[in-house]
């Protein structure tokens, strides 16, 4: 999948989510999209706790692969929210690439 296909897929996912929430107040829908990122980040932490057995009552409940899947959920959720904010213009991967370039430059790695 190239970057155009990725952006198109992320925009399509975001539009699908928006269509499923069409009856909601637009501002509330945007807040919900942003809050969902935090929820997904919490699932990363829960998976890491489960993968390392930090809860003695539960023991090991997750794998490292589960943690990785949850991290990908965070990334997709954030990119889909970006598409939502940009009215699904299919530029999420382009913008991510630009952001990465600026971050690498600031870090002295580019």
From TrEMBL:
The lineage of its organism: Bacteria, Bacillati, Actinomycetota, Actinomycetes, Micrococcales. It comes from Brachybacterium tyrofermentans. SUPFAM superfamilies: all-alpha NTP pyrophosphatases. Gene3D superfamilies: MazG-like. This is MazG-like family protein.
């Amino acid at each position: 999948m190239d970057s155009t296909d990725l952006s198109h897929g992320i925009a399509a996912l975001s539009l699908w989510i928006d269509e499923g929430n069409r009856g909601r107040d637009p501002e509330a829908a945007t807040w919900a999209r942003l809050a969902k990122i935090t929820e997904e980040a919490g699932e990363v932490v829960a998976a890491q706790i489960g993968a390392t057995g930090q809860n003695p009552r539960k023991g090991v409940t997750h794998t490292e692969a589960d943690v990785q899947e949850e991290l990908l959920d965070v990334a997709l959720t954030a990119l889909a929210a970006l598409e939502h904010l940009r009215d699904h213009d299919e530029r999420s991967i382009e913008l991510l690439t630009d952001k990465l370039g600026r971050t690498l430059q600031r870090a002295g790695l580019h």
